[in-house]
């Protein structure tokens, strides 16, 4: 296993990860740190769909495009200390990395997107008990609908860092028969002690015992799975 990206936004992947120029990656919840996505794209030349309705994520995506042109490290957000070191040498095809400003959920609707108490932090949540009572209204949709809109018949790698919404999204994913080769999931509902009904543990057990996933790395419930069937 090797880790790509910053201490905050990085993920563990297999050394021999089976991705190439035809692979489709969905990276959901990117905020102001796309170090993992940039390094994965450079490593494999895969196609990456960034999914995040946060306004600051859109600004950061535009700033990344400027950075790749000018190599001037000028960013307006809450940038990680090791970000510059992680992305300084990246060379990618930005045409293969697209941002969709929508939230991922288990139905197509409009929901409250709750902000954190500290305005410095970029992450927001669709769950009403995760952060503050302040919110934006955002459009959300299902994984299957987003795939159809982007003409994708499959996903090779799905990364979820969506502040508690991962349980609903993953249950909806398997319900629709979508099984990415790799799953990278931060189980925030469990980590923030908001999982009152034990849904996280049950879902992880289902992924491994029922759906054929193997845990390759469990980094404090930031889990890398690989589909073995």
Task: Write a short abstract of this structure.
This protein has about 230 residues and is α/β, with parallel strands linked by helices. The protein has helices at about 35-45, 55-70, 85, 145-150, 165-175, 190, 200-210; strands at about 1-5, 10-15, 25-30, 45-50, 95-100, 105, 110-115, 135-140, 155-160, 180-185, 215-220, 220-225.
SSE order: EEEHEHHEEEEHEHEHHEE
> What is the end-to-end distance?
20 Å
Mean pLDDT: 93
Largest sheet: 7 strands, mixed
Strand order of the largest sheet: 5-4-3-9-10-12-11
How does this structure look, described?
The chain has 229 residues and is α/β, with parallel strands linked by helices. It has one domain (2-10, 19-227): Vaccinia Virus protein VP39 (Rossmann fold), CATH 3.40.50. The chain has helices spanning 35-44, 55-70, 83-87, 143-149, 166-175, 188-191, 199-209, and strands spanning 2-4, 11-13, 24-28, 47-51, 97-100, 103-104, 109-114, 135-141, 157-160, 182-186, 213-218, 222-227. The strands form three sheets. Strands 5-4-3-9-10-12-11 form a seven-stranded mixed β-sheet, covered by helices on one side. Strands 6-8-7 form a three-stranded mixed β-sheet. Strands 1-2 form a two-stranded antiparallel ribbon. It is globular and about 50 Å long.
